[in-house]
From TrEMBL:
Pfam families hit by this protein: Hydrolase (PF00702)
PANTHER family in the record: ALPHA-D-GLUCOSE 1-PHOSPHATE PHOSPHATASE, FLAVIN MONONUCLEOTIDE HYDROLASE 1, CHLOROPLATIC
Superkingdom of this protein's organism: Bacteria
Stated name of the protein: HAD family phosphatase
Species: Olsenella profusa
Amino acid sequence: MPAASSKPIRNVVFDMGNVLMRFDGPYFSSLFTDTPEDAAALNAALFGSPLWTLLDSGTISHETMTRYARAHLPERLHPNLAECLAHWPERSEPIEATNDLAIRLKGEGYGVYLLSNANTHIMEQLGHAPVQPFLDGYVVSGIERIMKPDPAIYQLLCERYQLDPAECLFVDDNEDNCEGARVAGMHAFHFTGDVAALEANVRLLS
């Protein structure tokens, strides 16, 4: 049970990449190329580029990201880039155990939310997550132009959906993002793939 001064959590806020959906740039790149060398080049120009973070922040457009990647690849890989851009989201597999937990929590009466550093095309990836129809709301960095771990993005989620931060558990695979949530007044759980430990933490704080 939580300490007497604590409020029990009523909402669980999930990150998307590597919490609800797998995100692996080198793997995605390998699916659309024929050699390890070409896969490495494609990943460096796209997912591994500093501009990918700018895309997720809403600072640049998809068109700018595409132009940059094309400029950093040999012309023979431009068709591979186009295929990757068009189809990598559908190759992002749901993490079934985390989705199952989120759906069960929703059935038990918890609020279930998404807070993700992702670009404005997020639904191409999130749209085939089993939990997506059960979400009570979401905030996405590329739409809001605020990124985790800035406390402002967690505060925005709480204000938009009228949530008390003290009643929220935030789940992310990045400890810095968890710390941002704590600064904003939330509980936080650093997810490393252990869904049983995550569920135990939810129960402990409830």
